[in-house]
Design goal:
Layout lengths: L18 H23 L6 H27 L9 H8 L64 E2 L21 E2 L4 E2 L4 H4 L3 E2 L2 E7 L12 H15 L2 E9 H5 L3 H10 L2 E5 L23 H5 L12 E5 L4 E2 L4 H7 L3 E4 L12 E4 L3 H13 L2 E2 L3 E2 L17 H10 L3 H9 L14 E4 L2 H4 L1 E2 L17 E4 L44 E10 L12 E5 L3 E5 L2 E3 L5 E8 L2 E6 L6 E12 L1
Parallel strand pairs: 5-6, 5-8, 6-7, 10-14, 15-16
Antiparallel strand pairs: 1-4, 2-3, 8-11, 9-16, 10-11, 12-13, 17-23, 18-22, 19-23, 20-21, 21-22
Helix pairs in contact: 1-2, 1-5, 10-12
The structure holds 2-acetamido-2-deoxy-beta-D-glucopyranose (3 copies).
Protein name: TANC1 protein
Keywords: Membrane, Transmembrane, Transmembrane helix
Organism: Symbiodinium natans
């Protein structure tokens, strides 16, 4: 693919996360950004140990966040009026938003967490809030740290930038030969050298989730956020964290998950399909079936190909932990590369990580390819084969094979899809400059790689991105997550998240703070006689002002919620008169 996209030629649609929300985020981010600057001033390298130190500093920062929460209670209330979740819900299909709407299967109910006061029972009291657009401009109280509006420098490549030396590749720190071009294994691409000269731009770290997530969720988000801030600092650009999900699952996000989305400023990205329209699926699976085939969870991430409001995006599985500076991956991808790494059990491609400069036509090509080919265990996708693997590899029938074929193979069906999508012309001339390369998985996507094939120069601290093992390593040669890092980080294993910031609800006659009330389970299932175990009373220590009226659990059980006393909730399972064993969390507004 040729025809260079103009430098800085990103199409500039801003993410729909509302500005007001960013004010809140930036107040929070200010602390971490400060830490990053300090890290630099001390001349520390961005190696693994540096990141580890930074994480402990972030842990200390939690204290400050608690203080910040207090500040937010008194300052800048309207900032919280437009959380990303709030924005999201305004964009969601507008059915059944009234509190009296009955039994819609996916009704999200009231949303105290996001201050959608006009949707609440006491809506009448919030006279000063119109359309959730409550005057974010007339803030009169001074804010701490005076966050600037979120603007970034435009994307630029300095062609004369000095070449990077002493890169991980040049120092032979990794596997160096575990990369392939779609047919042969060979040397890896030097992503750090490629990254030289890039400044400005918009970038995204992308996660995907199919189904209603449980809790905890996105347990390595802190380490991702540290990278996002590092990249913003290094480029002067803007970096988003994005979670793509099917719309129906976004609607059912639980209270803790929503608080997380809000507090971390995550951009929720609704996707229209999880497998490309009219695409092949195995005969033991059918659309809508929750398990049995890894296609939906893998192929949904194809949507990242089309996110061309960003100069580069990088996708990661949720079990990936960032242990060192990996920002070169995004800077390099923005120059017009598709980057990935091979897999730890002999697969030529691991679908848990890829980066690219997105283009809508790439997504279209993926749809055409998906819609026109089938998979067989003998010949792979579109009869393009499995090389350099000798035969069907792990995940070949899902994303690992699909992506590897589409981006690394030059067979007929791939070419046809590229031409049809306008990426190539019929003579093979490319309209889009995009090169597919592979980078060293020991460094950029470590997956049970032990000592990286016996490389004496390799040790755990050269890993930038750690994927597997997720559990404590069962032998000394294996590198673990930071909390298991021998010789590395020595602090307490970090708790995954901050508790949600208590956010004030504006315009209530009685002020209350949003809270996630854990109603727990009611797993009393072997008693067929009354009392019915589909109803549970839950007593809390605070006074309940109001709560969402309907909620779904991660296993898709549906519940109706009523306040049945000053501090009592009654939770009733409504999809079946039955017990439930997955914890239910209810979003409420409470008073102490
Ligand atoms: C198959 O590919 C052609 C272009 O070659 C495209 O027009 C068509 O929509 C594709 N079919 C499906 C079902 O995607
Ligand atoms: C790990 O490797 C790096 C880079 O080669 C080196 O600087 C560091 O001292 C090594 N650490 C240990 C604990 O061997
Ligand atoms: C829940 O509490 C209400 C009173 O508020 C009571 O009438 C009802 O029987 C209780 N239900 C259960 C299942 O304990």
């Amino acid at each position: 693919m040729v025809a260079k996209k103009k430098a800085g030629g990103q199409t500039g649609k801003s993410s729909f996360v509302k500005q007001g929300f960013f004010v809140a985020l930036l107040v929070g981010a200010g602390f971490s950004a400060g830490l990053l600057f300090q890290g630099k001033a001390r001349g520390a390298s961005h190696g693994g140990s540096d990141m580890i130190r930074r994480f402990s500093e972030e842990a200390a920062m939690r204290e400050e966040r608690a203080t910040l929460a207090q500040l937010q209670n008194t300052v800048a209330q309207e900032v919280l009026d437009k959380s990303s979740v709030g924005a999201l819900l305004q964009e969601a299909p507008a059915s059944e938003t009234g509190p009296e709407a009955e039994g819609g299967p996916a009704e999200t109910g009231d949303l105290p967490m996001t201050s959608q006061t006009d949707q609440m029972d006491q809506a009448g009291t919030s006279a000063d809030v119109t359309n959730g657009d409550g005057g974010a401009a007339d803030v009169t109280t001074p804010r701490p740290a005076g966050p600037a509006p979120r603007t970034g420098k435009p994307f630029q490549v300095d062609q004369d930038a000095p070449r990077r030396s002493a890169t991980a590749l040049q120092m032979h720190l990794g596997c160096t030969n575990c990369c392939n071009d779609g047919s042969e294994n060979g040397p890896c691409f030097d992503v750090e050298e490629c990254a030289a000269g890039v400044s400005g731009g918009r970038y995204a770290f992308v996660y995907a989730h199919v189904g209603v997530p449980g809790w905890p969720w996105l347990t390595f988000l802190d380490s991702m956020r540290a990278q996002a801030l590092l990249l913003e600092e290094a480029t002067g650009g803007i970096v988003d964290i994005v979670v793509m999900m099917p719309a129906s699952d976004i609607k059912d996000l639980g209270c803790h998950q929503r608080a997380l989305v809000h507090n971390y400023g995550i951009r929720m990205y609704e996707v229209p399909w999880t497998i490309p329209p009219n695409s092949w699926y195995p005969d033991y699976w059918w659309p809508g079936k929750a398990d049995g085939w890894c296609g939906p969870q893998d192929l949904m991430r194809l949507h990242a190909l089309g996110m061309d409001e960003y100069n580069a995006v990088v996708f990661y599985d949720q079990d990936v932990e960032f242990q060192g500076d990996m920002t070169a991956v995004l800077k390099c991808a923005a120059k017009g590369y598709f980057l990935s790494a091979s897999g730890g059990v002999g697969e030529p491609f691991n679908v848990g990580f890829f980066a690219l400069r997105p283009d809508k036509r790439l997504l279209r090509a993926a749809e055409y390819f998906g819609g026109n080919v089938t998979f067989t265990v003998e010949t792979g996708w579109g009869k393009c084969g499995f090389r350099p693997s000798g035969n069907k590899f792990v995940g070949a029938e899902c994303g690992q094979g699909f992506f590897h074929t589409l981006f690394y193979k030059k067979c007929k069906p791939v070419q046809k899809a590229l031409v049809a999508a306008g990426l190539h012309d019929a003579s093979g001339k490319a309209h889009l400059h995009l090169e597919s390369e592979m980078i060293d998985r020991c460094i950029w996507n470590y997956q049970n790689d032990g000592d990286c094939g016996g490389n004496p120069r390799f040790n755990c601290s050269v890993i930038r991105v750690h994927h597997k093992p997720t559990a404590k390593p069962d032998n000394d040669r294996l590198c673990g997550k930071l909390k298991h890092h021998h010789g590395g980080w020595s602090g307490e294993p970090r708790a995954p998240f901050l508790p949600p910031l208590p956010a004030p609800v504006q315009g209530q006659s009685t002020s209350c703070i949003p809270a996630c009330v854990d109603a727990g389970n009611n797993c009393i299932c072997n008693n067929p006689v009354p009392p019915a175990h589909h109803i549970k009373n839950v007593t809390v220590s605070q006074k309940l002002v109001h709560c969402q009226t309907q909620v779904k659990s991660p296993s898709n059980d549906r519940f109706e919620v009523k306040i049945s006393g000053p501090s009592q909730l009654t939770v009733t399972r409504v999809d079946a008169p039955s017990c439930w064993c997955d914890a239910v969390t209810v979003e409420c507004c409470v008073q102490n």
